[in-house]
Amino acid sequence: MKPQHWPLYGLRIRTPRLELRLPDLELLDDLASVAADGVHAPDTMPFTVPWTDCPPAERGRAVFQHVLSTVANWSDRDWALSLAVVHEGRVVGRQDLMARDFAVTGEVSTGSWLGLAHQGRGIGTEMRAAVLHLAFAGLGAGVAVSSAMTDNPRSLGVSRRLGYLPDGLTVAALRGDRVRLQRLRLERARWEEHRAVEVTVEGLDGCRAMFGA
Q1: Short-list 9, 23, 5, 1, CA closest to 203
Q2: Mean per-residue pLDDT, 156-177
Q3: Burial class (CB in 10 A: 0-12, 13-18, 19+), 70
Q4: Predicted pLDDT at 49
Q5: Distance CA 55, CA 102 (A)
Q6: N-acetyltransferase domain spans which residues (predicted)?
Q7: What is the model's pLDDT at position 1?
Q8: Residues forming beta bridges with residue 166, ordered by sequence position
Q9: Alpha-carbon distance 121 to 125, whole Å?
Q10: Can you tell me the distance from the alpha carbon of 201 to that of 88, in angstroms, rounded to the nearest whole number?
Q11: Which pTM was predicted?
């Protein structure tokens, strides 16, 4: 497609194994199918919003609608870049980069999920490294924050490998129960010290202003 009126569709972030891009309708349908096939074991819930509790068809539809909503609701003061992660020509998951009042705060946050069939291969670390490069090197961010449940060692391990430091605990309600989350923080200087993944970005100049950068 020719992204004349929405240049974010021309943004490409590449690592040695992955390409991240805003999905067009065909790629978004593939992404929704990955979600429908499952992103975690049925006896766990790693997300504070339990969007995966619904049946597979509804789960896929919810992902499809959510990604479209991030485009429809975008503003340079409140944005969520929801990227499809492509590995060896196949969609394997989603990586989000988000910010509010980025021009003032210089702070971004991240969120992600991977299809069950693609977990345990280091893809999660590589795709987070990709959007951190976009944030710090591309947009000039000063801080990246994240959080994960204290009993989610995989997510916490990704953050640790990329240089995040603990930033306190918080609590949330999940399915009527109280859960604890570990907040995490990555300052720009520490990101530079822990960079280990080669990342290239294409198409940013055409959409940089959309981030409030």
Answers
A1: 9
A2: 89
A3: middle
A4: 67
A5: 36
A6: 17-164
A7: 64
A8: 184
A9: 9
A10: 18
A11: 0.93
Domain count, the chain: 1
- The two beta strands, 78-87 and 18-21, are antiparallel
pLDDT band at 51 (very low <50, low <70, confident <90, very high): low
Tell me which of 83-87, 119-123, 140-144 is least confident.
Answer: 119-123
The vertex-78 CA angle with 198 and 144, nearest 5°, equals 35
1 is a domain residue? no
Predicted confidence at residue 43, as pLDDT, reads 72
The letter for the amino acid at 79 is: W
Q: Is the dihedral of CA 36, 37, 40, 44 positive or negative?
A: positive
Residue for token pair 């069939």: 117
Judged against a pLDDT cut of 80, whether residue 135 lies above it is answered with yes
> Beta strand pairing status for 200-202 and 143-149?
unpaired
| Helix locations, the chain, DSSP H | 25-37, 56-72, 102-105, 123-133, 153-161, 188-194
In a domain, 176, yes or no: yes
Dihedral angle over CA of 39, 172, 129, 41, nearest 10:
-20
pLDDT digits (tens, 9 = 90+) for 5-39: 899 999 999 999 999 999 999 999 999 999 888 77
Nearest to 44 by CA among 95, 141, 113: 113
Q: What is the separation of C-alpha 149 from the centre of its chain, rounded to a whole number of angstroms?
A: 16
Calculate the alpha carbon distances from 190 to 54, 150, 157, 164, 174 in Å.
39, 23, 16, 8, 32
Q: What is the CATH number of the domain that holds 11?
A: 3.40.630.30
